[in-house]
Amino acid sequence: MQGIRHSRRQLLRRALAVGLAVPLLGALLAMLRRVQAFSRPETVNIPADVSVGLSIVDSALVFRGEDGTLRAFSGRCTHLGCHIDRIIAGEAVCPCHGSRFRADGTVATGPATRPLTPLRIEADAKSGGWTAHAS
């Protein structure tokens, strides 16, 4: 009987170890995918008729001033790389943890502590709009 209990314990320990390892491995792979997506260069086509104020255009945040000035930022939150998907009260809001960013890319409220990554903007003669590129 002692040998059976010992092997049963070993079996339970191994099952527990596998049961813990699988979710941890999944979480690690998800984190790696997020980091890869966060580090990929971005190119976004901004239409000529982009609205005045702060807008989401594909994977970028675009601010167009009343005077025609144009700024673009990566749409990835600098906290954990989530895709920012909404504008509330003139601020870009991350759906994951609620970080908020102003139209100039700076952090309004955390947990993010770093400003959004600016994108370089070039005029696009074909469309009359612009193209934003990761610098």
Account of the 3D structure:
This protein is α+β, with helices and mostly antiparallel strands and 135 residues long. It folds into 2 domains: 39 residues; 92 residues, Rieske [2Fe-2S] iron-sulphur domain (Rieske Iron-sulfur Protein), CATH 2.102.10. It is built from 1 helix and 10 strands; from the N terminus they run αββββββββββ. Strands 1-10-9-4-3-2 form a 6-stranded antiparallel beta sheet, with no helix packed on it. A 4-stranded antiparallel beta sheet has the order 5-6-7-8, with no helix packed on it. A hairpin with a 5-residue loop joins strand 3 and strand 4. It is elongated and about 75 Å long. The N and C termini lie far apart (68 Å). The model has no long low-confidence stretch (mean pLDDT 82).
Fold topology:
Blueprint: H1 2-39, E1 43-46, E2 53-57, E3 60-64, E4 70-74, E5 86-88, E6 91-93, E7 100-101, E8 107-109, E9 118-123, E10 130-134
Antiparallel strand pairs: 1-10, 2-3, 3-4, 4-9, 5-6, 6-7, 7-8, 9-10
Largest sheet: 6 strands, antiparallel
- Would you give the CATH topology of the largest domain? Rieske Iron-sulfur Protein
Which residues sit in consecutive blocks of at least 5 with pLDDT less than 50?
none
| Element pattern in H and E | HEEEEEEEEEE
Number of helices: 1
Can I get a quick summary?
The chain is of the alpha+beta class and 135 residues long. The protein is built from one helix and ten strands, in the order H-E-E-E-E-E-E-E-E-E-E. The chain has two domains: 1-39; 43-134, 3-layer Sandwich (Rieske Iron-sulfur Protein), CATH 2.102.10.
